[in-house]
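Here is one chain, start to finish.
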Amino acid sequence: MTTLPVNCTDIRKSLDFYGRILGFKQLQTVDCGEFDITYFALAGRLRLELFDYHNKTVHPPGGKRCGLRHLAFQVKDVAAHEQALKAEGVQITLSTCDLPNLGARVLLFQDPDGVDDRIL
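Its structure:
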């Protein structure tokens, strides 16, 4: 199984974003003492892990923000997803467009912690 870990600053916003807005199925939450991990099922054997450090700011050595550069999700209708995300107040960082060099139609948006998400 492959997992995608994301550190969250506001777990409620992140749970709502990945569950209600993006429609991923929330699985279990595991109490790890100083932090909790909530799992979401993605395609195949892929899992999203949301890390909740209970309102503590988490930075790796060097002071850079934790998290992923971006997550990518494949959908059938990119433009329809853009409209649905806008209706939810999600910040769009690149509107639906074609990237001929990649052979893809894409949309970029941000999760509640500023992680860039991409729809292809």
